[in-house]
From TrEMBL:
Residues 11-126 form the Tetrahydrofolate dehydrogenase/cyclohydrolase catalytic domain. Belongs to the tetrahydrofolate dehydrogenase/cyclohydrolase family. This is Predicted protein. It holds the Pfam family THF_DHG_CYH_C. GO terms for cellular component: cytosol. GO terms for molecular function: methenyltetrahydrofolate cyclohydrolase activity; methylenetetrahydrofolate dehydrogenase (NADP+) activity. InterPro entries: Aminoacid_DH-like_N_sf (IPR046346), NAD(P)-bd_dom_sf (IPR036291), THF_DH/CycHdrlase (IPR000672), THF_DH/CycHdrlase_cat_dom (IPR020630), THF_DH/CycHdrlase_CS (IPR020867), THF_DH/CycHdrlase_NAD-bd_dom (IPR020631). Residues 147-293 form the Tetrahydrofolate dehydrogenase/cyclohydrolase NAD(P)-binding domain. CDD domains: NAD_bind_m-THF_DH_Cyclohyd. Homodimer. GO terms for biological process: tetrahydrofolate interconversion. Keywords: Hydrolase, Multifunctional enzyme, NADP, One-carbon metabolism, Oxidoreductase. Catalyzes the oxidation of 5,10-methylenetetrahydrofolate to 5,10-methenyltetrahydrofolate and then the hydrolysis of 5,10-methenyltetrahydrofolate to 10-formyltetrahydrofolate. It comes from Micromonas pusilla (strain CCMP1545).
Length: 299
């Protein structure tokens, strides 16, 4: 794949996520049959951002389909930090709830770090608790949970047969949610990792050396064909809205990678939509299953 004149294989995130969700559904059913209990996930949403509301709806639907119980708490934009902390603490104490997620971003008047750190370590299915992130960065330590989007990137690569050990990986972007944890996870998989960010000199030269590219810069079509080594595997995390008059919404989602161009040189590539996005929710269910299994079956 990715030879001269050929086209990259498209990594179908939607199909891989559907397979994983079916596997999770089976595991949940086994847990129920053996112990009479299922994992439970609490979703807390603050305010009414349409994108956040959509993601939360998708998460609840995915839970329903997998047989995972979901709890929902919605508070207005004007809620105080103390109110949100109280909700988190009540789910921390609820034995039927095995995972808690606070949908991000939070309104500006709230201290995101404080709220995420209040989630019980054992229920941190988003993997954003500072101790879970800290363990990700330490050799010889494993976090209880890994953040869903970067975990989805690694699982997509593995399920598509991309060998990671000893490979040069370049992560474009250094956000707490994607870029930083993705770099740490790839290092744990024995990649040699370089992080390219807004202050990097000559990013194109560095990205061109990569066997594996994780694009998470939040900049539409930033990665062009001449940034990509022939045969590289590209995972595009970008979800940029660009105006599109042919759409009912007036916009469409597009990635950080120029798919048309880059698929002519890459070996494997994810599309947007239909690549990493669906994996985020599949990994959330997977983390919730792991947490439920630990609490219900003790393993
Ligand atoms: N607490 C969290 N907040 C946020 C996270 C997160 O992992 N935890 N990630 C993102 C949003 N997100 C989940 O919350 C998310 C983003 C995208 C998708 C997805 O399936 N995208 C589809 C397109 C969907 C569409 O058309 O709108 C795709 O890319 O194919 C799922 C979940 C920020 N907040």
């Amino acid at each position: 794949m990715g030879g001269r004149g050929s086209k990259a294989a498209v990594i179908d995130g939607k199909a891989i996520a559907a397979d994983i969700r079916a596997e999770i559904k089976e595991e949940v059913a086994k847990l129920k049959a053996a112990h009479g209990r299922v994992p439970g996930l609490a979703v807390v949403i603050v305010g009414s951002r349409p994108d956040s509301a959509t993601y939360v709806r998708m998460k609840r639907k995915a839970c329903d389909e997998a047989g995972i119980r979901s709890f929902h708490e919605e508070v207005p934009e004007t809620a105080t930090e103390a109110e949100v902390l109280k909700i988190v603490q009540s789910f921390n104490a609820d034995p039927d709830c095995h995972g808690i997620l606070v949908q991000l971003p939070l309104p500006k008047h709230m201290n995101e770090e404080k709220i995420l750190a209040a989630i019980s370590l054992e229920k941190d299915v988003d993997g954003f608790h500072p101790l879970n992130i800290g363990k990700l960065s330490m050799k010889g330590h494993e976090p209880l949970f890994m953040p869903c989007t970067p975990k989805g990137c690694v699982v997509l690569l593995e399920r598509s047969g991309v060998e990671l050990r000893g490979k040069n990986a370049v992560v474009v972007g250094r956000s707490n949610i994607v870029g930083m944890p993705a770099a740490l996870m790839l290092m744990k998989k024995d990649c040699t990792v370089t992080v390219v960010h807004s202050r990097t000199k000559d990013p194109q030269r560095i990205v061109r050396e990569a066997d594996v590219i994780i694009a998470a810069a939040g900049s539409a079509h930033m990665i062009k064909k001449n940034w990509v080594k022939r045969g590289a595997a590209i995972i595009d995390v970008g979800t940029n809205s660009v105006p599109d008059a042919s759409k009912k919404t007036g916009y469409r989602l597009t990635g950080d990678v120029d798919f048309e161009e880059c698929s002519k040189v890459a070996g494997k590539i994810t599309p947007v939509p239909g690549g990493v996005g669906p994996m985020t929710i599949a990994m959330l269910l997977s983390n919730t299953l792991d947490s439920g299994r630990r609490a219900i079956a003790g393993k």
